[in-house]
Specification:
By secondary structure, this protein is an alpha+beta fold. It has two domains: about 55 residues; about 80 residues, no CATH class. It is built from four helices and five strands, in the order E-E-H-E-E-E-H-H-H. A five-stranded antiparallel β-sheet has the order 2-1-3-4-5, with helices on one face. Helix 2 packs parallel to helix 4 and helix 3 packs antiparallel against helix 4.
Length: about 130
């Protein structure tokens, strides 16, 4: 029985499906799950579950694709935040959003960081109106 590991947080799992579920729920399918015993790499995928031998070059390609995926997943919460700030002074809006994005990218889960900011934003907006 292999030991499956997450390359983002180094958490280990005894079952592949637990590791893949962890990747989906915690890392938004952006981590790489690999078998420590045989080196196979597993990625969550809507089409299929790709399996390949562990290869550092392949891992670099996957990480580059993950960066693109992260930015793609950040677009929706960013657009929603931008919409919430309509009517704000443009310079304040730019400063707030740029600080938020930089902070999100520095966090362990950028997508969740922006989603959390989006949930907090309406409360902030109501406070300004009162």
């Amino acid at each position: 029985m292999g030991v499956y590991s997450c390359n983002q947080c180094n958490k280990n799992f005894k079952r592949k499906w637990n590791a893949l579920r962890h990747n989906k729920k915690i890392h938004h399918e952006l981590a790489i799950i690999f078998n420590k015993t045989n080196g196979f790499v597993y990625q969550n995928s809507k089409e299929s579950n790709n399996v390949t031998n562990f290869d550092p070059l392949y891992e670099q390609e996957v990480e580059e694709q993950n960066i693109v995926d992260i930015f793609g997943k950040l677009m929706h919460p960013f657009a929603e935040l931008e919409k919430e700030l309509d009517g704000s002074l443009e310079s304040n809006k730019v400063n707030y959003l740029s600080t938020l994005v930089v902070g999100a990218l520095a966090s362990s889960d950028p997508v969740k960081t922006l989603q959390d900011a989006l949930q907090f934003q309406p409360v902030n907006k109501r406070e300004k109106l009162e």
